[in-house]
Amino acid sequence: MSAKLTLLRGDITTDDRADAIINAANSSLMGGGGVDGAIHRAAGREILEECGRLGGCATGDAKATGAGRLAARHIVHTVGPVWRGGDHAEEDQLASAYRRSIEVAAECGARRVAFPSVSTGVYGFPVRLAAPIAVRTVLAAAAGTPIEEIRFWLFDDATYAAFADAARLPGGRPG
Ligand code: AR6
Questions:
Q1: What is the pLDDT of residues 17-34, one digit of tens each?
Q2: Which residue among 19, 36, 92, 165 is the active-site one?
C-alpha cells in the first residue's frame, strides 16, 4: 500500500503527529538558518551536541538523532544539494536526500514522517523542479516500508503551490 501524502502550510516544528521530522541541514550538521535553525531552536541544545558526534553528513545522505523538545521522536538530518545551474547532478542528489531520509526514518521505526522542502531556500534549488522530485521520490521510497504518511510542511505560497501541483502528477496524490 502506498503512503498517504499530506500537504501542510506552516512551521514544521509545530507538527504533533510525525514520528520523525526531516531537517534540511548542511554537511557540518552543526546548525544554520532557515528550517535547520528553527528545528534546532525548538528541539534544544542537546540535539546539536548529538549532531556533533555524527561526524557530518555527505550531500544526498541522512543521519538520525533524537528530537529533544519536539513532539516527534527522531530528527533525520539530510543534506540537499546547493543549486549550481542544474548540470552538477543536483536532481540526483536531491532525490538521494529524500530517499535516504525515508530509509533512515523507516530504520528508526517511524510511521509518519514530516518533511520541509529540501534545498529550495538558501540552497537555491528551483522549487518547480524540486517539488515533483520530492513527491515522486518519497512515495517510491516509502513503498514496502511501514511508513504510512508523509507530511510536507510548505512555508510559503509558491512552495505550497508547487507541491500541490506535483501531488496531482502521476505518481503523486493530493493529501
Ligand atoms: N518550517 C518549514 N519550512 C521552513 C521553515 C520552518 N520552520 N523555515 C524555513 N522553511 P532552507 P535549504 C522553508 O533555507 O535550502 C540552512 O542554513 C524555507 O522557506 O531552510 O536546504 C542549513 O544549515 C524553504 O522553503 O534549507 C543549510 O546551510 C525550505 O524550508 C542551508 O540552510 C528550505 O529552506 C540549507 O538550505
A1: 999 999 999 999 999 999
A2: 36
